[in-house]
Amino acid sequence: MPRLYDFIDAQTLSELIETARLEDLGPESSDITSACFIPQDAKAAAHLVPRQAGVIAGLAVLGCVCEVYGGQVEVTLQAADGDPAKPGTAVATLAGPLRDVLAIERVALNLLTHLSGITTLTAQYAARCAGTRAKVYDTRKTLPGLRGLQKYAVACGGGATHRIGLYDAMLIKDNHLAGVELDDLAARLTGAATQARQTNPNLKFVEVEVDTLEQLEQVLKAEVDIVLLDNMGPAILAQAVSMRTCQAPHIELEASGGISLDTVSEIAQTGVDRISIGALTHSAPSLDIGLDIH
């Protein structure tokens, strides 16, 4: 399974949770309800319990949440990120001062339900690509500040990471190509790719977006790693795969644009190598998880 800190460093995660803590408790770190209703010496054990089936993600974050909130609450995990979420079966327990448990509750659940929703949706897409060469990838369509965690959740669901940002890979999109003549395309791309590789030794890949087979024919002549096939139907994608196999079998093909659970299986069967889906992070419904105190 993926490791959380391969996607976000410990300091960034702590700062993210601290932002959430301040947002919830305010500058005075005040929970008015608990301060006025819960005895200061009250203790409790609270169980994080899924209300619906899915795949869990975000448990690895809970320890950091408790640390940022003062370290008085202890986390015990009954599951691991990437495990099935079974309705009614606890995945973690928070034990300690009841006021602290209640202060942590909402931030912990916000992260856990959101990340588990992403993981659950990713697992559904990945399952529909089983038996094909296609792998499901995320995109940069993430919430500000949450990119690392969201991409971690995709990985927990069996998906893969595209580029992290604008800094680690080269993706030449339609807006970059505006005004470039078709006959000049291969040469322009090769020149840009060469420069990118020379100036960025850790570059993950060079990718180019096309929306016609005419563009693809020219791009396959260039020194690129991946071609993104934007908003092409299964029949056109199959033609693109045939062209690639004949002209440049070393280049990977990525399908993208408007792909849903209803269409992903047919697209995977065209022979593309990658399927990138923005909905994994921007449209995944939260997984219903509650906190039960006994």
Concise description?
The protein is an alpha/beta fold. The protein has helices spanning 10-25, 32-37, 62-68, 98-128, 147-156, 174-177, 185-199, 213-219, 234-247, 264-268, 279-282; strands at residues 43-50, 54-55, 74-77, 84-85, 92-97, 135-137, 170-172, 206-210, 226-230, 252-256, 274-276, 289-293. It starts with 9 loop residues before the first helix and ends with a strand.
Description:
With 294 residues, this protein is α/β, with parallel strands linked by helices. The chain has two domains: 4-126 and 284-293, Alpha-Beta Complex (Aldehyde Oxidoreductase, domain 3), CATH 3.90.1170.20; 129-282, Alpha-Beta Barrel (TIM Barrel), CATH 3.20.20. It is 40% helix and 17% strand. It has helices at 10-25, 32-37, 62-68, 98-128, 147-156, 174-177, 185-199, 213-219, 234-247, 264-268, 279-282, and strands at residues 43-50, 54-55, 74-77, 84-85, 92-97, 135-137, 170-172, 206-210, 226-230, 252-256, 274-276, 289-293. Strands 6-11-10-9-8-7 form a six-stranded parallel sheet. A four-stranded antiparallel sheet has the order 3-5-1-12, with helices on one face. Strand 9 (226-230), helix 9 and strand 10 (252-256) form a beta-alpha-beta unit. Helix 4 packs across helix 5. The model has no long low-confidence stretch (mean pLDDT 97).
